[in-house]
Amino acid sequence: MTSNVRAGRIEELIKPGQDTTNPDIPPWVIVDVGFSSCVRSSGITINGGEIPDPIQGYRSASSTPKRPGDKHFGMLCPAILGWLNAHQSSGKTGVLNLMLEAPLSMAFAKRSTPGDEPQRVIQGNPIARVPDEIEVTESNAMVGKQQRPWHAQPASGLMIASMRLIQELSTALEDWEIRLFEGFVSFKTVAGNGGHWEDTCKLWDALPTRPAVLADRDGPIINPQQGLVTSITSLMDGASDGNIPPILRVIGSGDAELFSEERRV
């Protein structure tokens, strides 16, 4: 069951102070999700630190990562549990902020209703979310768009990987509250294309040090005139409250942008 999982709130999107080891402060587990069967395709940091490989059940001669924090997908859950056991005094219960660099919401074009004008044939089809697109200036000075839509590969496959990781953590931490946030490190240049570990560190560095608020550069996850957005938790076996995990997007070395669909009363 995933009934202990919920979308995080904007005001919860805040980096802890200097004391990142305080067990009373919810830790930030940030994962760049990969889904390879044979290589270290995932990256992870907890509160900005390096996370060792899990020990139990692994041979001592297991492959070593080229970059600190790079993990096999199957190592993620036991590595997180190992860190919590070592750093959280409560042990049995707590709150966990989980940010995944993978799509945690889906958007679909609006369908027509009785009395509406006839709609285009794409109604009901998957469409790009607002943070899936950026405007770029082409070499001919024309303004165009680059897209990294949630429904294209590899993003849609990483959504499945995220669901699996969320289910594993939800089961192992059944008395914990798990708050979901989406990280988005994309539209990278070749020069700025670091590894999985580096992407988690970019998201950690981008966390605000005071309660987050929507700024002028921020926006909604979907234009309500174009479609509807839903959380991936609606596809899982726990109750979904309909709220959407906020998205923290980092492009290059620029400022972070926040996209949100707050529905709580």
What does this structure look like?
There is one protein chain. The chain has helices at 76-87, 155-172, 196-206; strands at residues 5-7, 28-32, 42-46, 70-71, 94-100, 105-109, 133-137, 143-147, 176-185, 227-231, 247-250, 257-259. The chain has 3 helices and 12 strands. The model has no long low-confidence stretch (mean pLDDT 85). It is an alpha/beta fold and 265 residues long. Strand 11 (247-250) and strand 12 (257-259) form a beta hairpin. It has one domain.
Summarize the helices and strands and which ones pair or pack.
Layout: E1 5-7, E2 28-32, E3 42-46, E4 70-71, H1 76-87, E5 94-100, E6 105-109, E7 133-137, E8 143-147, H2 155-172, E9 176-185, H3 196-206, E10 227-231, E11 247-250, E12 257-259
Parallel strand pairs: 1-9, 2-5, 5-9, 9-11
Antiparallel strand pairs: 2-3, 3-4, 6-10, 7-8, 11-12
Which features characterize this protein?
alpha/beta; 265 residues
Give a quick precis of the structure:
The protein is an alpha/beta fold. It has helices at 76-87, 155-172, 196-206, and strands at 5-7, 28-32, 42-46, 70-71, 94-100, 105-109, 133-137, 143-147, 176-185, 227-231, 247-250, 257-259. It has one domain.
